[in-house]
Structure formats: structure tokens, C-alpha cells
Amino acid sequence: MTGKSSRAYKLKLSERGIFLFLKCHCRLCHLVGDFLPYGTTLHVSVTLLERVPAEDLVAEISGPELAAYGGKEVRFVGTSAHLADVTAKLADRIDESGRVHPKPPTWKLFLTALCCMEAADDKFVVRAYDDLCAVEAAMKPRRLLDGVRLSIDT
């Protein structure tokens, strides 16, 4: 594999945006009962957003409350490079609807995803986390000897 396995994503948030992110992060950690990287929260939120029907997705990204979450506070979160592909597909899906012009910027997708995560039922958040874990495991490069038992007779 020649591609990067992870990368940092830049978030430009207001105080309200930081609070929203932390609220979603703490909730996810509680739901799965583990300490998680911040990037996992971002990736789970975008995974949830992928499941929103196109007409609802357009309505969500056009919501006036998103502006209150964006701001000048810059934060970086690291997660899978796969998130960039998912985000690009979401932007294309919105663009294809013809109802939003120009194509939404990534920051707007991230904030929309966090808003959707905040409103989602616990079972959907956990399912998105489980699905993301399965995708990440499938994408992880395997070492040559993974799963091979070696026995050495002496």
C-alpha cells in the first residue's frame, strides 16, 4: 500500500462548535465504554451523515445554525485518510441534488455531521461506530504472517 493510512483534519470552530464536538465525543466514549481518539468522533459523525437520505442531507447542510458552530478556533483531529474519500462523496451527492450551489465546503460537512450525531439515537451512533471499526479493520494492511501459526520442533 502506498497511500497514507491516517491524516489530520482541520476544524475551525466557535466556542459553541467546540462544545458540540466535545459533547459528541464524550457521548460516543460513554456509549462504547472506552477512551477514543477525537478523530474517531469526527469519522463516526460523517459515517452517520452518509446514511441520511439525500433530501434530508441538503436540508441539514443548509441549516442556519451551522454558522454558529464555525469560528476561528482551529483544532486538528487525526483519523483515517478514508474520511477524505467519504467526505468528497458526500459533497458530490449534495452537489448532484442541484439544490445547493456551490458544492459545500468540508468544514460545513463536518459541522453538519456533528449536528446529526448529536440528534441521532444511541443505537444509530453505536451501529455507525461498529461499522466504522469493521471498515477500518478490513482496510488495515495485514502482515505476511498474521494468522499463521509456526511450530518449531526442538
Question: Which structural class best describes the helix and strand composition?
Answer: mainly alpha
Count the strands?
2
The gross shape turns out to be globular
Number of continuous helical runs: 7
Oligomer: single chain
> End-to-end distance, in Å?
37 Å
Based on CA atoms alone, the radius of gyration comes out at 18 Å
Enumerate the spans where pLDDT stays under 50 for 5 or more consecutive residues.
none
- Secondary-structure element string: EHHHHEHHH
Q: What is the residue-averaged pLDDT?
A: 87
Beta percentage is 5-15%
Please list the strands of the largest sheet in the order they lie side by side.
Answer: 1-2
Largest sheet composition: 2 strands, antiparallel
Helix content: 55-70%
| Domain count | 1
Keywords, please?
154 residues, mainly alpha, two-stranded antiparallel sheet, 2 strands, 59% helix
Description:
The radius of gyration is 18 Å and the shape is globular. The longest helix is centred in the N-terminal third of the chain and has 18 residues, at 15-32. It has helices at 15-32, 38-50, 54-61, 66-69, 82-97, 106-119, 122-139, and strands at residues 6-13, 73-80. The N and C termini lie far apart (37 Å). Strands 1-2 form a two-stranded antiparallel ribbon. It is mainly alpha-helical and 154 residues long. The protein has one domain. The protein is built from seven helices and two strands; from the N terminus they run βααααβααα. The model has no long low-confidence stretch (mean pLDDT 87).
